[in-house]
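Name: ATP-binding protein
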Amino acid sequence: MQNQIDLGSDSAGAPVYLDVEELLATRLLVQGNSGSGKSHLLRRLLEKSAGIVQQIVIDPEGDFVSLAEAFGHVVIDGAAYPDTEIVRLAARAREHRASIVLALDGLEIENQMRCAALFLDALFEAPDKHWYPALVIVDEAQLFAPSAAGEVSDEARRTSLAAMTNLMCRGRKRGLAGVIATQRLAKLAKNVAAEASNFLMGRTFLDIDMVRAADLLGMERRQAEQIRDLERGHFLGLGPAISRRPVAVRIGSVETRAKSTVAGLPPPPAASGQDMAALLHAPPEEPPAQPDLWSMAQPARVTAASLQDRIERQAAPANIPAEVELSQEEADAVARDVLCEMSGEEGCTFLPSATLFQDFTVRCRMRGLKNHGLDAAQFRRSFAQAVAGLDPHAPDEHEEQLLGLANAIPEELLTPFLAIGKAALGGKPCPDDETLAVLYGTRSVGRARRMLEHLERSDLVVVRTDLAGRRSVAIPRLNVATPMA
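Structure predicted for ATP-binding protein:
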């Protein structure tokens, strides 16, 4: 029973348990209209399982930050960190098994989707040695996995939906168990909802949502009406982690509260209508009086001729430097330094190219380079060269041949291919699978191996492995190969 938590009681008053170990393998979907008690259910689940398993909460409204004081969760304000730091924090959370609340209430909806996607992707791409079991609770999941396009950009929607799909479809092998809550099943992407094997259905009124909830619970259509009659905090549960047959659950009490919750029903202030009207229509407070500087110093009158003569005789201020135009060599040096600086930062290969390009432009401007002369495609190529250790502005003859060969390679494969070519040209061993995975922008060693197989099928490289597991990668068109290692 140590891995089971008490969710509440059934209609007969008997306790209803949820098996956390089974939940990690089968995932959970919570549905209910606003006010049905979804957040209360999630809070009960989090509080009761806090000492059993690591918890990661994607919190779009900041409702779960109160868990920090009572249960030691670390609150990460999504609006306070750049993309690179969000990725690092997610990786460290998996490494150190820290329970996290990612509070996104300070962001607009599109940026909430981007931040959540970055965080979830970093959890998903963690090295296999950090694949500890963890519950990933996503409140208002219809925001991050919408069933249809909305007012947000297509890029943000695709990125967020892909991250949620990875969590629900492929997260189990990485120790990640998705617990998603939504107001409406019709608004949640079907391929995300379909991966859950446990369900807790709360009160809902729309026919389409009632019918779909009844189908998930294995109920007949005529029984769907009872979902409309559920009281707040009451749910119908089904699944291997809850019950093999649909069971009514009254969620138990919780220790913490949402920051926006007001206990009870406080009465309105006991003020008369006239008093309240006077408060509403009161004039704004006057700011403190400022001294009349205009009357304190009256300038002497001057004629136009004397003023013009004074301007002509006035020397240019010595403390304002004239604008300096950088030469082409200086501009190339600034761009090269910025690329080298960015390529040496941890987690740079996991960031979207648009974010990297914006960061590159800002850093160049801060160093006096207003126009670096690169468009987005040229930047991606130069950045790949910098990450692989090639000089993007002064490659030698052999590196020029390598870059020419790389013209036919998709952009996502460019960095690892150039790194392999750089190693072969320098007579160094081929980067190991973990290094290739990072260069490829993933934590999955398997994806790195598949990437290498794709390069071999494309006749760009030849991979040889001896009985001891040592590997050599040759690039036939350049007549070079890495030593066996």
